[in-house]
Amino acid sequence: MSLSPASFVVHNGRLRPADEAIVDAHDGLVVCGRGVFETIAAYREMPFGAKEHLERLRRGGAVLGLAVPDEDTLLAAMHTALEANGLLDAEKSRLRLTLSSPGDGSESWWIEATPPPPHPATARVITGPFFRNERSPLAGLKTINYGDNVVALDAARRAGADEALFANTRDELCEGTWSNVFVRIDGTWHTPPLSSGCLPGVTRGVVIGLFEEHGLPLIESTLSYAALDRVESAFLTSSLREIQPVAAIDGRELENAAETIFLQSAYRSLAG
User: Fold this and answer.
1) 225-264 residue pLDDT tens
2) Which one-letter DSSP state was computed for residue 66?
3) What is the pLDDT of residue 211?
4) CATH number of 123-271: 3.40.50.150, 3.30.710.10, 3.40.50.720, 3.20.10.10?
5) DSSP 197
6) DSSP string over 126-181
7) Chain centre distance of CA 269
8) What pLDDT score was predicted for residue 186?
9) How far is the CA of 173 from the CAs of 56, 95, 166, 188, 194, in angstroms?
10) Helix, strand, coil proportions of the chain in percent (round to 5)?
11) Is the pLDDT assigned to residue 21 strictly greater than 90?
12) Domain 8-114 CATH (choose: 3.50.50.60, 3.30.420.140, 1.10.510.10, 3.30.470.10)
């Protein structure tokens, strides 16, 4: 995924050129990956799901002992970042908020605003020896520790795919490198429960709500990784990809279900 760089970032409430250094070599983010982040889609300057993203940021910050600014400060900074980078009128933008950890325990955060990265209309997905530790103290947190994700995504791209799916240590379906996953098996839709170790995705939560609102059956259920061989249809969710149908898993072509098409439209009505 390629991104156009931001010209300016908001660092600790102050607008700065994006090419200025804002983290020193002793910051815990650099030394041991002690940091959390959120990626938020903004539609014509309005950050979608900001409350839920900031609640998750606060949970991650609490676990890692990071100072988290108040919601009003962060929302104002998002607006400043969008404005400074000429994105207030953009149909869709990407906001990334990062918390780091200076050695003195002081507050350290910054917000970038860029155009969103391109995502294909459908995703080709692979499986492989990729695992989440659902018993990790970092399970379900959006931390800077994304090395596993980078390795798995690189493997997917080398295989001509767009995303890779993780199992957990119990060989249960968990999530993608940058996404949550929904699958249809024998006509029934499923998504892994949070006990699988998957990220409690904000878009995941919105989509679960859409299933409920429109009377579409969905089960948050534990699925063996091997059950992917029986998947008839699937889609991925994340803030920037929204709802992305899966065209194939390990080269096996899947159906683009009518429910997926309906949910895509319903989601865009909410977000945009």
Assistant:
1) 999 999 999 999 999 999 999 999 999 999 999 999 999 9
2) -
3) 98
4) 3.20.10.10
5) T
6) E--S-EE-TTSTTTT--BS--HHHHHHHHHHHHTT-SEEEEEETTSBEEEESS-EE
7) 20
8) 96
9) 22, 29, 7, 16, 11
10) 30, 30, 40
11) no
12) 3.30.470.10
Q: What are the b/e assignments for 219-246, b being 16+ CB within 10 Å? A: eebebebeebeebebbbbbbbbbbbbbb
What is this structure's pTM? 0.95
154, 173, 152: which is closest to 226 by C-alpha?
A: 173
Q: Is the dihedral of CA 53, 149, 243, 114 positive or negative?
A: positive
C-alpha count within 13 angstroms, C-beta hemisphere, residue 167? 15
CA triplet 183, 189, 195: central angle to 5 degrees? 75
Structure tokens at 147: 């090395």
